[in-house]
Amino acid sequence: MQSSERLNLTFAALADPTRRAILARLATGEATVTELAVPFEMSQPAISKHLKVLERAGLISMDIDAQRRPRRLEPEGLKEAADWIERYREIFEQNYQRLDALLGELQAKPSRRKQKNK
């Protein structure tokens, strides 16, 4: 899978509040579909559909443990999205620093003119 496709799947998965809540729950430990469905007012098949989206994005994985099929968080799945966001955060921060420097120069100029006029 290409990087841009993985990013699309990751951000599409993260766009839904139910899926983000599922990820938050899995951050505390593994859970089955039944356990994950408890706080939501939706059916287990609906939760399973959300889990498939998260699995396709590589954000969670499923283990097979006898009769249980617990899901667990895959932190590596978020790494590419986090790296992408960090890259743009750095660019925005550099732009703000240049803007701050320019504003500082512009604010300093009137005071120089006042000093020359005295």
TrEMBL record:
The organism's superkingdom is given as Bacteria
SUPFAM superfamilies in the record: Winged helix' DNA-binding domain
Alphabetical list of SMART domains matching this protein: HTH_ARSR
Q: Name one GO molecular function term.
A: DNA-binding transcription factor activity
Q: Which Gene3D superfamilies match?
A: Winged helix-like DNA-binding domain superfamily/Winged helix DNA-binding domain
Q: Which positions fall inside the HTH arsR-type domain?
A: 1-93
Q: What PROSITE patterns has UniProt attached to this entry?
A: HTH_ARSR_2
Name of the protein in its database record: ArsR family transcriptional regulator
Identify the species of origin: Dyella thiooxydans
